[in-house]
Amino acid sequence: MQKLNVIKIGGNVLDNPAQLEQFLTDFASVQGPKVLVHGGGKIASELSKQLGIEPNMVNGRRITDADTLRVVTMVYGGLLNKNLVAQLQARGCNSLGLTGADANVIPAHKRPVKDIDYGFVGDVENPEQVNVTFLASLAEQGLTPVFAALTHDGQGSLLNTNADTIASTLAVALSRQFEVNLIYCFEKKGVLLDVEDETSVIHHLQPPYYAELKEQGAIFAGMLPKLDNAFSALQAGVKVVIIGDAAEIQDIAVVGKAGTKITL
């Protein structure tokens, strides 16, 4: 099968113009079919405040009422998404900005109200509902999809959806037709044993070692959801997951040359 990279870019890189410019230059040079996924929470929060809408976060998740949904749609689907596409075009990477609503690529459902009402937040349950035929046709045409962190409920409403979830959902779905590498790029060199020590990168992580590190409390708590998500993606058909520095995307895309390689 043909290799395809699904690459998610972290918010801290999006917020740093110099780092973002370098990342996009390097991303454009990655060979073969690829998909870029982005969020944009910090910029959405800044715009919300300018509009008099105070951001409301619970456990790191954004409560998305109707006004906040308008803001994240403007920021994720408009400002950030189209600027990323324009910058990639300038680098010779023919790109197409998308949300999960476009071509019904990623159907989702509104998160049920339990202890907390997250509002217009979307959860994706079934990667098999992803419109892989459409995405494969884009790859055949040499087009690179750039996905904003938005899905839809099939009833006319967009939904704010975690960008890591969108990346893993796309990776799992595309693994039916491609040999997929799922890559999470952020500002660190990889998964670190010591979050303050950039040299403490775990170069290869498999389930037994991961379980041992979790039991020891040796992994930064904020990394645990991303790692759990990574192992779930592997179990669902993704070939390999890599977490690493956006500045090393060219080496990361050559599996095993940089970052933390995660396998079963």
TrEMBL record:
- Residues recorded as binding substrate, renumbered to this chain, are 40-41, 62, 160
Gene3D superfamilies per UniProt: Acetylglutamate kinase-like (3.40.1160.10)
- Gene Ontology cellular component list: cytoplasm
The annotated site for Transition state stabilizer falls at 8, 226
> Which reactions is this enzyme annotated as catalysing?
N-acetyl-L-glutamate + ATP = N-acetyl-L-glutamyl 5-phosphate + ADP
Where in the numbering of this chain does the Aspartate/glutamate/uridylate kinase domain appear?
Answer: 3-243
BP GO terms, sorted: L-arginine biosynthetic process via ornithine
Listed A to Z, the keywords are: Amino-acid biosynthesis, Arginine biosynthesis, ATP-binding, Cytoplasm, Kinase, Nucleotide-binding, Transferase
Read off the Pfam families from this record.
Answer: AA_kinase
Q: Where in the cell is it found?
A: Cytoplasm
Give the molecular function GO annotations.
acetylglutamate kinase activity; ATP binding
The protein's annotated pathway: Amino-acid biosynthesis; L-arginine biosynthesis; N(2)-acetyl-L-ornithine from L-glutamate: step 2/4
Q: What is its EC number?
A: 2.7.2.8
**General function of this protein:** Catalyzes the ATP-dependent phosphorylation of N-acetyl-L-glutamate.
Q: Which family does it belong to?
A: Belongs to the acetylglutamate kinase family. ArgB subfamily.
What is the name attached to this protein's record? Acetylglutamate kinase
Q: Which gene encodes it?
A: argB
